[in-house]
Amino acid sequence: MSTDTDVQLQPRKKGLTRSQKRSLSRGAQYVVFVAAVIAFAVSADWGRLKNQFAQGSIARQMFPDVITMALKNTVLYTLSGFVVGLALGMVIALMRLSSVGPYRWLAGIYIEIFRGLPALLIFIFIGVAVPLAFPGTEIVGGTYGKVALALGLVAAAYMAETIRAGIQAVPKGQMEAARSLGFSPGRAMVSIIIPQAFRIILPPLTNELVLLFKDSSLVLFLGVTLEERELSKYGRDLASTTANSTPILVAGLCYLLITIPLGFVVRRMEAKAQEAVK
Fold first, then answer.
1. 156: exposed, middle or buried (C-beta count within 10 Å: 0-12, 13-18, 19+)?
2. Distance of CA 238 to the CA centre of its chain
3. Distance between CA atoms of 219 and 71, rounded to whole angstroms?
4. Residue 166 CA: distances (Å) to CA of 153, 198, 209
5. How far is residue 255's CA from residue 74's CA, in Å, rounded to a whole number?
6. Which residues 6+ apart lie within 8 Å of 191 measured at CB?
7. Which of 4, 93, 133, 215 could anchor a disulfide with 163, C-beta 3.0 to 4.6 Å?
8. What is the pLDDT along the chain (278 residues), one digit of tens a residue?
């Protein structure tokens, strides 16, 4: 006849611990991932893919123009649009923070409109609507000026909100301290607040540069000459001429030459910002 003591002495059945369950779950995920990769590798027709996307002779014909012309134009379009967007975004952000009601309303309307419209429509508006509305008027810089304006209008709406958030993230005591030292509100904003805000918003601004780099492909809707083509337009034109998609792949790899390093820079800046907060 068993007693309570005998029951207590019987070993209890133990289930899996939480860490063991996590390890099993992680292992199952790895197995599924590897199985999916193997299934893809086995089922894909690599010969046809190589013939359509990896013709070495066609890729060699693209150099050096793909770098000296297409990539160069893409970088110039992106940087010019970023500069215009940053300058306009700063003005809109300050209007958004202004104590003057009409300024805040205009800034809010601009942000809502240009964040809601696709970038494609902005390019079409700059390339078609502006010449129709103002006959004989030429935008300074030709195609480069048009691209800078189109990209800048789109980027400014996003940058304005980023800059506004950065300014508001600066402790209010900084403004009060500057005023106590005799700074005017405008001088305190320019000399004290905005520099600190930019240290906060540098990672998202760099991320916006990456997005603009890809949006520069919309330049084709402005009608460009052969020497003004960027990577996407250059790749598509050669793909049509050669009846092969290798130029598109090469153009995509050129995009990655810029976006991957920029993405790495963004992650490093975000990590440093988090360490500074800690």
1. buried
2. 27
3. 13
4. 20, 7, 17
5. 9
6. 178, 183
7. 93
8. 555 555 555 555 566 788 887 888 888 899 999 999 898 888 888 888 888 888 989 999 999 999 999 999 999 999 999 999 999 999 999 999 988 989 999 999 999 999 999 999 999 888 888 888 888 777 888 888 999 999 999 999 999 999 999 999 998 888 888 888 888 888 888 888 998 898 889 888 888 998 899 899 998 888 888 899 999 999 999 999 999 999 999 999 999 998 888 888 888 877 776 676 55
Token readout for 79 is 């940087």
Q: What whole-number distance in Å separates Cα of residue 26 and Cα of residue 49?
A: 33
Tokens of 98: 């202004």
Could you tell me if 150 and 122 are in contact, meaning their C-beta atoms sit under 8 angstroms apart?
yes
Q: Which residue has the tokens 């906060």?
A: 200
Cis ω before 118 (30° cut-off from 0) = no
Cα–Cα distances (Å) from 136 to 105, 123, 128, 132, 231, in that order, read 32, 19, 13, 9, 30
Going 44 to 45 to 47 to 53, the CA torsion angle's sign is negative
Interior angle at CA 66, CA 51 and CA 86, nearest 5 = 125
For residues 194 and 87, what is the distance between their CA atoms, to the nearest angstrom? 13
Asked if 156 and 117 touch (Cβ cutoff 8 Å), the reply is no
Tokens 């789109």, residue located: 154
Where are the extended beta strands (E) located within the chain? none
Cα–Cα distance, 114 to 6 (Å, whole number): 77
CA-CA-CA-CA torsion sign (100, 101, 106, 107): positive
